[in-house]
Amino acid sequence: MSRKPTYSGLPTTGMPAHIAIIMDGNGRWARARHRPRVFGHSQGVKTVRRVVEDASEIGVKCLTLYSFSTENWTRPKAEIRALFNLLREYVESDLDTLHGRNVRVRILGSRSGLTPDLLQLIHRVEETTKDNTAFDLNIAFNYGGRDELLRAAARATAAGCDWAAMSEDDFAPFLDTAGLPDVDLVIRTSGEKRISNFLLWQAAYAEFVFTDVLWPDFDLSDLKSAISEFNSRSRRFGNLEPSEVA
Ligand code: IPE
Ligand code: IPE
Ligand code: MG
After folding, report:
1. Would 33 be classed as within a structural domain?
2. Which of 80, 96, 178, 215 has its CB surrounded by the most CB atoms within 10 Å?
3. Domain carrying residue 128
4. What is the spatial distance between Cα 137 and Cα 155, in angstroms, rounded to a whole number?
5. Which CATH number belongs to the domain containing residue 154 in this structure?
6. Nearest C-alpha to atom 3 of ligand 2 is from which residue?
7. Residue nearest to atom 7 of ligand 2 (CA)
8. In 101-140, alpha helices (H)
9. Centroid of ligand 3 to alpha carbon of 186 (angstroms)
10. 41 lies in a domain?
11. Sorting pLDDT into bands at 50, 70 and 90, what band is 245?
């Protein structure tokens, strides 16, 4: 018999334990206003602030935001620079507030290609908030699901793991999301309906909610409606409908 996979996902009876958002549509939001794409990204940061606050107010405990993918390196240099600056500014300006609200911040993703000052800042925010317990905020930056799996495999090998005896639960602690629950709900804004290399392992059994709203316009009512859509789904994890289980 093969080993039984264990998903930490919740039944759809309340708040998802872990919500992950693909924050998409900043460029289109800006273009609609005849503004540069970067203007859309800076509006997007305002949405991040609001959504983090709203999510914690309504009882979400773990939120992961996709802010720069390993594929985003193909964008023009000036846009990449702007995205890096926005992450830096966000962390610098909000660190004290987040820490004061007992938020633990993690930056998921590869460290390669990041500048020394950004690496230092990431270290500072993660160290400062590491004992916080009210809310987990994860920012996926320079993140790709395939890249994460390769890095996790390298870490597991370096730790001397016996691959033949390894279970899924043994492997999960080597991921960037070590210790966090599986993703219950993935929300993607802007009308695109794809995963774009996001949390491939952690979202194995997530429910997906797609909305046409562009990220800078995403608000509390959109978050609540995604959660109620999640609660209307029947999650079976490979099993039968509860009504069909003898
Ligand atoms: C999402 O907005 C932010 C990032 C991917 C960094 P986009 O920049 O992808 O906006 P669109 O998809 O071009 O509208
Ligand atoms: C996904 O958005 C990545 C982030 C939101 C950071 P993209 O806009 O880069 O995704 P694709 O290229 O449309 O798949
Ligand atoms: Mg996009």
Report:
1. yes
2. 215
3. 18-244
4. 23
5. 3.40.1180.10
6. 69
7. 24
8. 116-129
9. 16
10. yes
11. confident
